[in-house]
C-alpha cells in the first residue's frame, strides 16, 4: 500500500515528464489492439524506428535550438543538400565513404555556425535568417541535382547506414544473437548507473526513493528494454540507424543533463540577460547550439540518402517541421529554457507511430495529417495546462 | 461620518494547497486614502486581484460590497465598469504608442467604427492637466521617465471615470521627487472625491498620506489603524506587520576597521553609444577591505551604469580611466573576467536579469560558478545540492527543498537566492544594487545581518540604494551621484538625509 502511494506521488510530481511515455504507451496499445498485434510485430517496429531516424536526430538538435529561444527552418533542405553532396562525393568524385562522412559532418558544423553568426553576431531573428537559409538550400539542392536528377549511391557501406543491420553472429531460437547481447549490455549499463547514482546520493545522506520502489523501477525499465530488444531481435536485429540514433540520444542526454555546457544552454534559454550577467557567453552558446544543429542536419541528410540509396531533388522537404513538431510533442516549451532531448525522441516516435499505425489501418492520408495535427495541438495544450497547475 | 464605498466581507481564497486569504475583512470609507500594508506574501495583492475581478466571482468565498450593492465581477472589465481602476507595480502601458493612445487604449473615443483622434488628443490634454503632467500627448511612452509613465497610468484611470483608484506600490520605482509629486497628486484627487487604496512598503509614505491603514498578515486582517486617532506610527505598523517589535531596523555592528583599498577607480568614464552620451563622468572612488560603501542618488543618476561598467561592462560602454583591483590595474573584456577577478554584482531587477525564474534554487545558486561543482566539465549533482543546502540554511531561505522553482518564492527569498549565487563565487567585492527593493521588513533585516557578517569576514561591499534610511543605516562611507558624476562624499558621521539630498540634486 505504501509502495502504491509512493508511486502515485512520484507520477504526480513528474507528470509532465511521464506524460509522453504514457501517451506513447496508449498509442501503441491502441494500435496493437486495432491491428490484432500486427503493430507490435518485429517487422513493423523495426521499420518504424528506421523510418524515424533521420527526423529523430534533427529533433534532438532542434530541441536545443528551441530551448535557447530560437528556431531553425533551414535544417530540412540543408539535410537534403548535404545528402546530395555526399552522394556526389561518392558516386561522381570517388571519395570513399569513410572520408565522405566526416567531411559532410564538418560541412554541417560550418553551415550551422554560419546561421549562428547571423543570429548571434548580427542579431537577425532566427526565424528570418533560417527562412533565408531554407530557400538558399532548396535552390542549392536543385542546382546540384539538376543535371542528373536523382543521384544513385552504390557504396554498400554507406547504404548500410540507412538499410543495414548489425551482424547477427548466430541466431538463438530465431532471434538475432548480437542484438540480444546488445540489449543485455544496455540493461547491465542501466542497472550499474542507477546503483551508482543511488550509492552516491546515500554517501551524501540525501533522500532516496524507498528500496521497494527502487526495485520496482529497475525491474520495470529493464523489462521494457528487454521487451524492445526481443521484438527487434525477432526481425533483422538492431539497424545501424537505430544504433546511431541511440548514440546521439545518449551523448546529447549526457551533455544536456550532466555538463557545464548543458547547464549554460538552459541558462541562456531561461533568461539570456541573467546568463550574460552570470558570466556565460550567450554568443558562444548560440554558436555551439547552431553548430550542433548543422552537424545533426548533415547526419540526417546522410541517414536519408543512405536509406533511399540515392539523393533526390526533393530530399529534406518538410523535415524541419516534422522535427519541430516532434520537439513540441516531446515537451519542449516555446518560451525557452525547458525541454529534454529524450522527450523529443519520444515525440518523434509518437508521430512516427501514428503514421505507421494509421497506415496499417488503411486510414487515408488526408485524415492522417489531421490526426497528427490534432495530436500536436493536444500535446502543447497538455504542456500549458500542467505548467499552469505547477505555477 | 462618511459611508463606506467598499466593504469586503469574510473574503477567503485558496490556491492548490495554500490558503492565501482567510476571512479577510476590509472596509474603505468614501473619499479617504486607505493604505494596505503587510509583508510580502501577506495577501495584499491577492485581495486586490479578488476586488478587481482578476480572480472572478465564484473562485473566492465572501462578499464584495461596492457602493452599497453586492458585486460579482466575472472579469476585469466588470470592475472597471463599476468604477474601480487598479494600477500595478509593473506598468501596463504600450511603450511604442503615444501618451494619448495609451490613455484611451481599450476605451477609444469613436464615431461609429472609427476612432476620432482629434477629440482623443483634446481629451488626453484635459486628463494630463488633471494629473499635472506637462508633456506633449504625442510623446511616445518609452521616451518618458518612470515617474511620468505612472502619471499617464493615473490619467488613463481618470479617463474611465474612476471612483476607487488602487495603486500597487506606486513609488517602488520612483525617486524621492517623483514620489512626493505622486503623493501630492493623490491628496488632490482625494479633494475631488476619488477614493484611493494604496499598497506600500514605504512606511514614511504611509504615515504621510494615509487616513486609514489596514494591516494584513498571513492572509488575515490584523487591524485597521486610523490617522485621526494618531494610530498610524512606524512602530505600531511594524509591530502589527511582523507580529513582533523590531527596535532597530538596522542590525548593530561593533567593529569598523578597514584594510587596504580593494577597489580604486580614477577618472572613470563610460560612454553609451546607444544614448550618445557619457553615463558615467570622471568618477573617482575607492572601497577598502571590510567596508560598506553606500552610493546614493536619484534614479537615473548613473549608479547602475557605474556598477555595470565595473562588472565586465556587459552593456559595451566605451570606457576610459583606471580601474585598480587590490592595487593592480585591470580591464575586463567580459563579465566572466570580472567574476574571476573577484567582483560580484547582485542586480537591481532580480526577476528581469538576476534569476532564472523557471529553474530551481540549486541551479540558480551554482549558475555563476558551475566549475566549482564540476570536474572536467561534468557536474557533480550531489555536490551541487550540498552547496545549495548550505546557503539555504545559512541564509534561511524558506522553501521545502533546493529543488523548488525560484519563480514560486517570495521576493525576500528570491533575493536571498540571488545573494547566495554571488556569494558562491567567493567575491572580494560585492556590489549590491537596491538589495532590499520590494522585500518585507523581516527579510530586509536578514539581508542586512548577512551583509554585516560578510564584511566582518573581510569582504567589501558597494551598496547602491534609493532608500536614504538604508544608506545611512548600513554604510561606513557614502558617495552621492547625480547625472553620472560623484557630487559628494560623506563619512557616515557627517552624513544625514538633507546633505545627501543636497548633493543628489546638484
UniProtKB/TrEMBL annotation, chain A:
Subcellular localization, as worded in the UniProt entry: Cell membrane
Membrane topology of this protein: Multi-pass membrane protein
Highest taxon of source: Bacteria
Keywords assigned by UniProt, alphabetized: Cell inner membrane, Cell membrane, Membrane, Sugar transport, Transmembrane, Transmembrane helix, Transport
One GO cellular component, as annotated: plasma membrane
Keyword Disulfide bond: no
Main location: membrane
Transmembrane portions of the chain: 21-39, 51-68, 75-93, 99-120, 165-192, 204-232, 238-255, 285-306, 369-386
Gene Ontology terms for molecular function: transmembrane transporter activity
Role played: Part of the binding-protein-dependent transport system for D-xylose. Probably responsible for the translocation of the substrate across the membrane.
Name of the featured protein: Xylose transport system permease protein XylH
UniProtKB/TrEMBL annotation, chain B:
Keywords in alphabetical order: ATP-binding, Cell membrane, Membrane, Nucleotide-binding, Repeat, Sugar transport, Translocase, Transport
Gene3D superfamilies: P-loop containing nucleotide triphosphate hydrolases
Subcellular location: Cell membrane
GO cellular component, one term: plasma membrane
SMART domains: AAA
UniProt keyword Translocase present: yes
GO molecular function list: ATP binding; ATP hydrolysis activity
Protein topology in the membrane: Peripheral membrane protein
Domain ABC transporter: 6-243, 265-504
Protein name as it appears in the record: ATP-binding cassette domain-containing protein
Amino acid at each position: 500500500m505504501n509502495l502504491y502511494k509512493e508511486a502515485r506521488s512520484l507520477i504526480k510530481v513528474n507528470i509532465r515528464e511521464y506524460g509522453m511515455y504514457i501517451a506513447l504507451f496508449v498509442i501503441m496499445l491502441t494500435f496493437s489492439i486495432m491491428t490484432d498485434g500486427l503493430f507490435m510485430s518485429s517487422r513493423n517496429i523495426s521499420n518504424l524506428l528506421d523510418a524515424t531516424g533521420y527526423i529523430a536526430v534533427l529533433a534532438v538538435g532542434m530541441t536545443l535550438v528551441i530551448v535557447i529561444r530560437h528556431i531553425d527552418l533551414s535544417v530540412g533542405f540543408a539535410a537534403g543538400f548535404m545528402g546530395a553532396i555526399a552522394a556526389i562525393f561518392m558516386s561522381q568524385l570517388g571519395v570513399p565513404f569513410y572520408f565522405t562522412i566526416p567531411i559532410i559532418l564538418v560541412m554541417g558544423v560550418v553551415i550551422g555556425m554560419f546561421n549562428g553568426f547571423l543570429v548571434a553576431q548580427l542579431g537577425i531573428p532566427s526565424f528570418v535568417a533560417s527562412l533565408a537559409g531554407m530557400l538558399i538550400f532548396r535552390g542549392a539542392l536543385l542546382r546540384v541535382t539538376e543535371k542528373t536528377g536523382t543521384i544513385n549511391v552504390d557504396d554498400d557501406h554507406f547504404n548500410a547506414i540507412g538499410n543495414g543491420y548489425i551482424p547477427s553472429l548466430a541466431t538463438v531460437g530465431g532471434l538475432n544473437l548480437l542484438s540480444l547481447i546488445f540489449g543485455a549490455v544496455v540493461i547491465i549499463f542501466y542497472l550499474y548507473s542507477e546503483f551508482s547514482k543511488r550509492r552516491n546520493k546515500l554517501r551524501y545522506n540525501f533522500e532516496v526513493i524507498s528500496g521497494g520502489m527502487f526495485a520496482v523501477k529497475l525491474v520495470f525499465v529493464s523489462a521494457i528494454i528487454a521487451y524492445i530488444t526481443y521484438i527487434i531481435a525477432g526481425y533483422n536485429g538492431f539497424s545501424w540507424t537505430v544504433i546511431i540514433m541511440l548514440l546521439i540520444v545518449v551523448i546529447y542526454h549526457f551533455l544536456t543533463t550532466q555538463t557545464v555546457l548543458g547547464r549554460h544552454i538552459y541558462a541562456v534559454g531561461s533568461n539570456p540577460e541573467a546568463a550574460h550577467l552570470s558570466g556565460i557567453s550567450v554568443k558562444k552558446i548560440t554558436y555551439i547550439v547552431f553548430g550542433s544543429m548543422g552537424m545533426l542536419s548533415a547526419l540526417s541528410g546522410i541517414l536519408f540518402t543512405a536509406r533511399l540509396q540515392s539523393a533526390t531533388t526533393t530530399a529534406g522537404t518538410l523535415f524541419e517541421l516534422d522535427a519541430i513538431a516532434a520537439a513540441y510533442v516531446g515537451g519542449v516549451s516555446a518560451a525557452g529554457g525547458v525541454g529534454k532531448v529524450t522527450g523529443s525522441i519520444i515525440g518523434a516516435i509518437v508521430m512516427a507511430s501514428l503514421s505507421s499505425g494509421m497506415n496499417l489501418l488503411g486510414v487515408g492520408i488526408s485524415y492522417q495529417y489531421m490526426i497528427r495535427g490534432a495530436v500536436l495541438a493536444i500535446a502543447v495544450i497538455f504542456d500549458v495546462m500542467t505548467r499552469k497547475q505547477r505555477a | 461620518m462618511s459611508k463606506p464605498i467598499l466593504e469586503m466581507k469574510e473574503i477567503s481564497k485558496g490556491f492548490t494547497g495554500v490558503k492565501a486569504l482567510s476571512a479577510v475583512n476590509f472596509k474603505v470609507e468614501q473619499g479617504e486614502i486607505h493604505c494596505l500594508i503587510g509583508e510580502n506574501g501577506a495577501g495584499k495583492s491577492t485581495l486586490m486581484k479578488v476586488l478587481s475581478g482578476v480572480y472572478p466571482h465564484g473562485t473566492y468565498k465572501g462578499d464584495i460590497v461596492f457602493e452599497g450593492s453586492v458585486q460579482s465581477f466575472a472579469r476585469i472589465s466588470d470592475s472597471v465598469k463599476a468604477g474601480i481602476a487598479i494600477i500595478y507595480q509593473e506598468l501596463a502601458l504600450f511603450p511604442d504608442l503615444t501618451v494619448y493612445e495609451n490613455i484611451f487604449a481599450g476605451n477609444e473615443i469613436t464615431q461609429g467604427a472609427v476612432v476620432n483622434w482629434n477629440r482623443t488628443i483634446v481629451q488626453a490634454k484635459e486628463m494630463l492637466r488633471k494629473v499635472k503632467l506637462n508633456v506633449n500627448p504625442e510623446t511616445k511612452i518609452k521616451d518618458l521617465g518612470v515617474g511620468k509613465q505612472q502619471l499617464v497610468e493615473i490619467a488613463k484611470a481618470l479617463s474611465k471615470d474612476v471612483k476607487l483608484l488602487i495603486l500597487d506600490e506606486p513609488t517602488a520605482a520612483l525617486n524621492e521627487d517623483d514620489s512626493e509629486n505622486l503623493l501630492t497628486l493623490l491628496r488632490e484627487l482625494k479633494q475631488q472625491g476619488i477614493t484611493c487604496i494604496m499598497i506600500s512598503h514605504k512606511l514614511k509614505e504611509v504615515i504621510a498620506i494615509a487616513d486609514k491603514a489596514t494591516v494584513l498578515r498571513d492572509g488575515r486582517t490584523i487591524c485597521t489603524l486610523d490617522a485621526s486617532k494618531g494610530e498610524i506610527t512606524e512602530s505600531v505598523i511594524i509591530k502589527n506587520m511582523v507580529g513582533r517589535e523590531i527596535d532597530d531596523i538596522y542590525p548593530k555592528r561593533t567593529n569598523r576597521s578597514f584594510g587596504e583599498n580593494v577597489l580604486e577607480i580614477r577618472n572613470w568614464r563610460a560612454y553609451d553609444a546607444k544614448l550618445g552620451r557619457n553615463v558615467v563622468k570622471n568618477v573617482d572612488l575607492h572601497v577598502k577591505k571590510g567596508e560598506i560603501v553606500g552610493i546614493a542618488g536619484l534614479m537615473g543618476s548613473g549608479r547602475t551604469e557605474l556598477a555595470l561598467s565595473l562588472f565586465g561592462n556587459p552593456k559595451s560602454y566605451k570606457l576610459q580611466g583606471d580601474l585598480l583591483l587590490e592595487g593592480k590595474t585591470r580591464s575586463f573584456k567580459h563579465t566572466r573576467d570580472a567574476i574571476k577577478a573577484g567582483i560580484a554584482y547582485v542586480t537591481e531587477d532580480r526577476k528581469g536579469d538576476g534569476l532564472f525564474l523557471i529553474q530551481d534554487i540549486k541551479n540558480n545558486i551554482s549558475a555563476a560558478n558551475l566549475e566549482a561543482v564540476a570536474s572536467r566539465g561534468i557536474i557533480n549533482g550531489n555536490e551541487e545540492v550540498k552547496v545549495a543546502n548550505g546557503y539555504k540554511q545559512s541564509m534561511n531561505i524558506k522553501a521545502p527543498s533546493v529543488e523548488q522553482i525560484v519563480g514560486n518564492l517570495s521576493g525576500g527569498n528570491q533575493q536571498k537566492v540571488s545573494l547566495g549565487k554571488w556569494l558562491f563565487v567567493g567575491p572580494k567585492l560585492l556590489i549590491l544594487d537596491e538589495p532590499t527593493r520590494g522585500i518585507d521588513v523581516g527579510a530586509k533585516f536578514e539581508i542586512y545581518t548577512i551583509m554585516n557578517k560578510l564584511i566582518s569576514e573581510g569582504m567589501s561591499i558597494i551598496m547602491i540604494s534609493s532608500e536614504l534610511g538604508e544608506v545611512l543605516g548600513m554604510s561606513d562611507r557614502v558617495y552621492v551621484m547625480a547625472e553620472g558624476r560623484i557630487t559628494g562624499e560623506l563619512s557616515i558621521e557627517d552624513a544625514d538625509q538633507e546633505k545627501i539630498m543636497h548633493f543628489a540634486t546638484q
